[in-house]
Each structure stands twice: as structure tokens, then as C-alpha cells.
Amino acid sequence: MNRKEIIEITKQKLKEKLNNADQKIINLAQIIEKVPNNINELYEQLRVITDQEYPTLDQSLTIKEYVLFYLLEEKNEKNIKNLNISEKNIKEIIKIKNSNVSIDLNKDIKEITLNLAKDILNLIETKEKMEFEIDKLLKENYVNAYHVATPKILCKMLEIAGSSKRLSRFPASTIQLLGSEKNFFKALKFNKNTPKYGVIFNHPLVISLPFKNKAKFSRTLAAKIAIAIKADITNNKIYEELDKTIKIKHSKLK
Amino acid sequence: MNKNLIIKDKLIFTKDLNSKKNREWNPFHSKVAAGIRKGIIPNINQDSKILYLGAAEGYTVSFISDLVENGVVYGIDISPYSMQKLVLLSEERENIIPILEDCNLVDEYKDLIKTKVDLIIQDVSQKNQIEILKKNAKLFLKEKGEIILSLKLSAISQKKINIIDRELKDLETDFRIIRKVRLEPFEKKHILVFAQKK
To answer: Residue B153 falls within a domain, yes or no?
Structure first.
């Protein structure tokens, strides 16, 4: 074969590999894991200054609500009513702001805090967009596995396995223990009890069960996930049947 | 020794393929260069053909392409991200051929490499490194062709057993070991092996 022909073949393969849906999902999932830490760190730094102005802004507010409130309050009070915060809370916050407990900040410092708040809001919105994108990609490519295993758990499984093809070759027992490899091999080495579940433990159906039945149910769930991924690769839709059997088993163990 | 390889005051240079200027080869970045500093100088002629397993972004491959002016370097790697840079490099240098494949799966790329090569350089740091080398040497290496193998000890096993003897015994079934050196201080826990096919 010619040199040019070989280079063209590698270029084609490169595009195929980079355009792969698995790779996109894994990349986005890896970013999403680290973004919340950045948001939390910036939020804590913002609170150091803004607490002087609004000492009563509680931790009961989510970060997004808090930042939105802070940004809107500075511009116009009417817009605050569009937020989900109750009116009583808003009144109390403003009351204490106007009392002698809090301080009014300088213009320069206020600019800095407003910019910081905007950055945090941007990060939160990009995170939401990424989650939406991952959801879309998973639904397009792995319908069965999306319904049987939740999107978060499917993402982590893909990340550990490396690709959907490799994940589809795993037996159910391996899928049950994905994510607990370190404990598993440690147990084998010292002749102790092996773990019963890995990433699957965070599945909402597993969490809701009593401790006694968690391992039992995770075994059946792993079996169904293994079937679902195999069906996804062969383009079959069987998630309704799988869901039925899972729910019957779940109701028995409840 | 190759004309384009220049060793001066413990520094290694190659004559650039395109500009004909001297380029420094850093032994801290390349295991082959570290091997040359330690005394392993492979017989690379100007028209020899070389197979590089684990080419990555092509730092070492670019220097080897300087040495083989009229020959060919086949660079194989599995990662698409590093292959992007290798493909760009191959457009500048006309004797590099990039191949995006897994070195373990020889059947996938055996149709692309039809000529036998003079030298195989392997830098993949996998558990079954020697098995991979044997597979490739069986198909692509000439009789009495040479190999340069960098063994990453920590990739093979974390236990405190004598890994080197075990691995080299495995290698000696197909190859005659000419020389082996540890690559400290350039690379930690690495051994470079220079051998010939039996």
C-alpha cells in the first residue's frame, strides 16, 4: 500500500474515533465531575464579602438562587419576585440589610463581587447545559441502558469500561462490581469477603431498599443492565419489559 | 555509526531532515536518547526501515526520521489525541507513516506494512509488553533484525519479586540479548534492552 493511502486511512479512523459518542460522553462526564468543586470554592469566597451586606441569606437557599438573588437585588427589586424565594424571606432579608447590623460596601468592591457572582452563574448554567447534552447523547445511543440504569450510573460505567463495546462484553457479575475494583482485589489478596456492589449502589432503586436486600437487588439490576447494553448495540428496544421485571423484584424486596 | 548522529560532550544531536541544521535530542524526554547516552547505539542506516510501537506524539520518531533519510519509520499508536500530532508531523517529514491501531491486534494492520523492517523499537508500558513484541517481530522483523525494548518495571508488577529476570527469560526464547542498561537518572524504573532475532 502507498504511503498516502495509509495516511488517509489513519485520518479516516481518527475522525471516526474522535466523533464517537462514547468519547464525547466520557469527556463531558469527566468535566462535570470537577465543575461543582470550582463552583463551591468560588461561592465560599463570594460569601466572605457578601455576608457583610446580607447576613441573613441562609444556607437553605441553593447556590444558584443565592447568586441570582444577589445579582437581581442590586439592579431592581421587582425582579426578585420572579424567583422561587418566598416573600417573607425577601422582606426579612431587606429589613436586616437596612438595619444597623449590616454594612454598605464600596463601589469598587461591589463591582468585584458582582463579577464573581456572574462567573458563578455562568459556571452553573454551563454545567446544566452539559448535563442536558449528556442526557441527549445517552438517550440517542443507549435507550435501554438509559432507562434501566440511570444516566449518571451509565456515564460512570462507560468511563470505567472505556467504551460501550467493551462494556457490552462484560458479564453481569462484573457490571455489579464496576467501581469497587480496589476493594475486590484487596479482599482476594487477604482472603476476606468480596464487595457486593460498586457504582450500582447509588441507583435510586437500590438506595430505597433496606440494607439486607440491597445486594440481592443489585445482582438482578446488574443482570438487566448487562442485557440492556447488549440490546443497545444490536438496536433493539426492550426497556419496557426489563423495567417491568425490575419493578416486580423491587416490590418483593421492599 | 550513522552520519546524521552526532555525539559531542555528552550531548546528542541529529541533522534535521529538512533544514540540515543540528537538533538536540533530550535524553530526559526520549528513552532511545537515554540509551545512546548509556552506550546502546543501534545500527540505523540511512535507508533502513523501522517500526516504532507506541509512537505517541512523535518526539522520538522525529529524531529517528532524521537518521533514516531514505528509509521509512512506521509509527503505531492507539490514542487518537496523540495521533493528531503524529499525522501533522508526518506531513512535514516524508519518511514517517502514522498508523492508528492497537499494537496488541496485529491482524488489524498487517496489510498496511508489507515490507519487513530492520529494527523494532517498543515503548508501550503494558503488562504483556514482551508478548506484544513477539507478535510484531514474528510478522514484521527481518531475520537477524534488531529490537530496542524499554521495559517499564512498575507497569508489569508492583510486587517485590525479581521481575527483570522473569521478563528477560521470556524474551530470550526468541531473541539473543546483546546489552541491557538501567536508564537512571534519565528515567526511573526503566530498563532498555538491545537484542537480536535468533
So the answer is: yes
